[in-house]
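Researcher: Here's the sequence for the chain we discussed earlier.
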Amino acid sequence: MRPITIAALLFAGATVAIGVFVITFAVTPAPANATDQTAASVDAVFAEWAKPGSPGCSVGVSRNGIPAYEHGYGMANIELGVAISPESIFHVASISKQFTAMSILLLAQRGLLSLDDEARQYITELPDYDSPLTLRHLLTHTSGLRDAFLLRELDEARDDTVGRPEALVSLLARQRRLNFTPGAEYQYNNGAYALLAAIVQRVSSQPLSAFADANIFKPLGMTHTHFHDDPSAIVLNRASGYHHGADGWHLALHSDLGRVVGNTGLFTTAHDLLLWEQNFTDVRVGARALLTAMQTPTALTTGETKPYGLGLEVGTHNGIREIGHSGGDPGYAAYAARYPDRGLAVAVLCNTDEGINPIAMAREVADVYLTNAAPRPRARRRAPAAATGFALSPDQLASKAGLYRDPSNEALLRVAVRGGKLMANDGAGGDAGFELIPVSASRFTVPGGTPALDFIPADTGGTKEVHVLGPQPEPRVLQAVSPVTVSESDLRALAGEYESQDLGVIYSLVATESGLTLRIPGRADIRLEPVSEDVFGGDVVGTVSFSRGARDAVTGFTIHSSGVRSLLFQRVKR
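Model: Thanks. This is the structure I predict for it:
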């Protein structure tokens, strides 16, 4: 799992039994009561994926708790030629969070904990921060915890036990600082939900998988749903996840699958998710007050309100109230949402995360039922820039290239021209990334997503900028970084070994003729590029800022990124 990606940069501000596990069930098909016209309109949304040799999606729609349409498109397993059906079981990634939240709420309902308890009351390993860090902060992504999965990438490579929940708990417990004071900011945090899963186990004496099964899934009849905490378990009707490469489709590998739950790990069907959605209307699990709390936006200590409740996103679609959550992991993408004022629920589960947008698809399906309108024509997957009907000259593309920095969080964006296309990727490197598709002389879009990037030329004496327009109310502003040259002698002065007490790891910095290279034990070398005096940028690490002491001697550096702020490394004296 790569926590700090270009998607995070653009959008910030983006699994029933225990032990040896085999599902057996009989399927009772839901009534196909959609009219031919409605069914044809829904089918048109997924037409691109309704073919052999390609992954696809399962869709489920219910009206007032009654299944209205359920169908599969594409292949659940390309190798075996198994088609996706309404019974196909998908990994749905972060859709898991609402079930983790409900597990915590059920424990609170029974008086076994309170949402306003400090997290360290249950995770006793956590340090005593300057400000209380509560369970409510964990649930609402306002904890200030550093990103556990980025911390894992910054740590030295260890054996596969590092992916297990207890290892993530230990990693977070070693962090002596937070990104911000709890409650002051909203920052989506997967590690917080991994901690919540550990709290469920410590308070209930059951792993999250067993607790959720007994208290949520079975009572609601979600017989094809479980938290997948055993990577070796067999799951009948499981849809395999796929990536697309230059030579076609490949199985997507996800090392955390079956190891980490809470923030992810839920296996389910579209039909089962519709049963859960109906529980918010016809309450069978939990209490009305708990379900209302889940759907209440979060108020920060600054007075600002964020559209996230307890494991659920709260917003609108075309002026209609929408409550749901998306999920994405290697090989999988999903979205499930409710439109409570219209009695409608939609779930779209897909077994690829490339060239597909289940949020947009689910909303197009919702529109069919909300407005009785046919869906808009869909753009082709991985469409080339020419498909937009707008082309730029080489000079126009080159004028956008460069390194851009977000002064609010030190995030970096590299934009470069490669193969006649404008490419972008997070960090200071420029080898990977994805195409930015021009829609005007200054505006570009991202394939498979909704944000737009506006390139703003420099005013007289000013700096050129990139404005990222996405779901946030105000655009994110990134400023161009002027090229900096560092002498070989200055690079040699920075070379050496540096240790982080928070990670328990020693980095090596090596000066070469080509620049500065950072080496994390067991991981690929990271090339650092100069951003300004004593400041460098690189993949994974974000911004590396050096500090100096007496006689201008280098004493250490800090790593600063969107997910991990001010991680201190001190120079090792030999």
